[in-house]
Structures are given as structure tokens and as C-alpha cells.
């Protein structure tokens, strides 16, 4: 009883000490951020109402383009995209690893049983006579059963720091999934914008083919009337052939973009041909956000993930430091042995031990201190990575805002140039029909018109992409999508009945 009292006192003392957690506690890295973005060009500080309205608009920023097909595609992509589902499985995996680490807090217990015949050698001098097994009877039957258990007392917080590190990793994986979601939305919207602009370019090319056919017909008529010549007919035919040839790569691009969008939605290429093949007006360019306080940068999943990685690396320092301290383990063994079934439950057949074991590192050639230095360096690298991620994010936002403002005037100038070119082309054809200019002037104005119209279409595309890039740079979109738990196709409970009874 006295020995049991001492052991109980030791256990009680150990449990009291278990509140001690070594290693540094995580402190967020504070960076001095500007109150607003330089390119925002706000004339007055953003009001709370403007900030609230901006946050609401950015929750589902794709709806600001006022294109119901785009909105429908986004909803389908969130449900069906495989990269997003893979990221969800990574969350499940990290949560399982966290639970695996947390299992160290609990006693680890295993059961065993067995039996059979054994034989001992008698060809060794001075071999001690075994009770119940004299030397002239080297064989025996044996039955055994029992249990072994081990419980580590987390006195210095090694397990706690390990669980903390895995919890931070779970959070980082959640942010990684949100980053995948944002990349998906950005790629889908960009592909859709390019698809609609390409269809617009096909329409422009088709109109120019019609104009080229009219020019060929006009040249042929003038030749028949004795005014034109065969050179003009050849030039008109060459221009028509060139216009037809330029349209074919655009059709190929439409097919490729349709395939890409289908894959983003988790569908086979070609499934969206019917839905997307009909040209539609270009989506509306949204208005510039009403409020642009720099605090919105905290929405970016890559920044949030980098911050969680830094927290995880800090917890890993605690794991390495805890390895310098003593480890306390309570082993328990219960293992009766007997030769017959009725004997295994008798008192004489019982065998057990219940101890408190302690181990402390003394000399390992600097291995453990090296592990601490490595963990510290890894944490510092994670902190610097976080800072670099913030700087990169600010640059991307500033670049996106600069492009947004600059492309407005650029698109307006190209629109004016396209209108002027179309007017000049129409006048050139009329003058050519009246015999006042040569066919070279007609070709020149038509090519200029086609180039101006295509450049205007690409400028409209850039304006749409500027909006997508700005919303992506600001980390918008993931807050409107709930983080649903993924499921496994096969449940553990259907494979092992013991999993329902024991926490394994």
C-alpha cells in the first residue's frame, strides 16, 4: 500500500505539472499598412456605409457583370470543380492528422491473447529447473491473454504544441482551398470574357467578309463595264480569302475556351457546346468599388494561409524545445499465463506491472539543439514569407487599379478610332464606285477598319479582365461560398465493427 501511495503521489504531481507548456507562444506579425491604396484616388475617406456596400458587392462579384449565364456557370463550377473537391479532401486529411496527434493525450491500449505448445532445450549445462517444467519434460502447453497500455504525461506541452501545429495546418489548408476557389472563379470569368469577345471578333470578321465580297462584286462589275481591270479583281479576291482565313483561328479558340470552361465545371469537353455556342452581348463592366480601404487585403486567402503557416512553424519550435525536457510515461501490463484453460484465471497465473517511467535526454551530440535552431529558422522564414505575401498582394491590387483607370481612356479612344475607320471605309468604297479613287485606297481603309474594330474588342476585354483581376487581388468571392465538409466514399464504420464500439 505504501508503494501504491508513492506512485499515486507521483501521478498527481505529474498531472499538476502538465499545465506547463514550453516554447514561444504565437504572436501575430504586425505590419504597418497604409490606410488606403495609392491608386484608389479617393477624394474622401471611405464611410462605413460605403465599406459595407463594397463588401456586399464583392461577396458575389461575378453578379456585377449582369450576365446570368456567367452566374450560372460559377454556381456549377463551385459544385463540380474537381480541384476544389481535391482541396476539400486535403482539409479532411489534415484534420485526421490533427486528431492523430491529439490521440497522444489518451492512454494507448492493446489486447493480446494466444496459446500453443513450446519446447525448451535441455542440452545446456546448469540450466535452471523451471517450475512445473522439469528438465526431463522440456515441452509444455501455454495459454496467455492480457493487455498492454501506455500513457504519456504531457508535462511540458510537447503534445499540446504538436496538436497546436496541426490545428494551424488545418486552418492553412482551409485557406488553401479558398485560394483554389478564388483561382477557379478568376479563371472561369476570364475564360468566359475571352469567349464572348472572341465571338464578337468572329462577328466582326464575318461583317468584313461580307464587305470584302461586296468589294469583289463591285470590282467585277466595274471590269465588265470597262472601267476596272483584272488587277483590282485579283486584289479583291485576295482580300476576301485573307478575311476568311483570319476567321478560322477564332472559331478554334471558341471551341477551346468552351472545352476549358466545361473542365472547370467538372464536365467533359463538349458538354457546354449548345449552351455557349450562341454569341451574346459582352458582360457589363462594373463600376469601380465605392470604398477601397487597405484592410480588405485581409480577405486574401494567400495572406491568411501564410499567417497560419507562421503560427504552425512557431508551434513546431515548442515541440523541439519540449524534447529537451523529461518524458514521463505510465506503462501498464496485464498478462496472465498458464498451461490449462482453468488455470489462466487463477491468482497464481496473474502477471502485471504498473509503473511510472521517466526519461531525460543527456547527450545526443547537439542533435536536439540543432532541431530547435532549425525550427526557429523555419518560423522566421515563414514570418518573412508572410510579409512578402502582403507586399505582393498590395502590388497586385495597385496594379489592377492602375490598369482599371488607364484602360478606360484607352478603350474610349479605340472606340472612336473604330467608328472613324468605319466611316472612312464606307467613303472609300463609294469613291471607288464612282471611279474617283483606286482599289488600293479601299483595301487600306478596310484593313484599318478591321484592325481598329479588333483592337476595340480587345480593349473591351481588357476592361472586363481589369475588373476580374481587381476583385481577385482584393481576395473577393470566397466569403459567399460556405465551407462544406467533404465526405469519403467508404465509411470506416462499414468496414470494422469495432470502430463503432471503441475510439481507435
Automatic annotation (TrEMBL):
PROSITE patterns: PROKAR_LIPOPROTEIN. Residues 1-19 form the signal peptide. It is found in: Cell membrane. InterPro entries: MdtP/NodT-like, OMP_efflux. It is a lipid-anchor. It holds the Pfam family OEP. The keyword Transcription regulation does not apply. Its main location: membrane. One of its GO terms (molecular function) is efflux transmembrane transporter activity. GO terms for cellular component: plasma membrane. SUPFAM superfamilies: Outer membrane efflux proteins (OEP). It comes from the Bacteria. The keyword Signal applies. Keywords: Lipoprotein, Membrane, Palmitate, Signal, Transmembrane, Transmembrane beta strand. Belongs to the outer membrane factor (OMF) (TC 1.B.17) family. This is Efflux transporter outer membrane subunit. The lineage of its organism: Bacteria, Pseudomonadati, Pseudomonadota, Alphaproteobacteria, Acetobacterales.
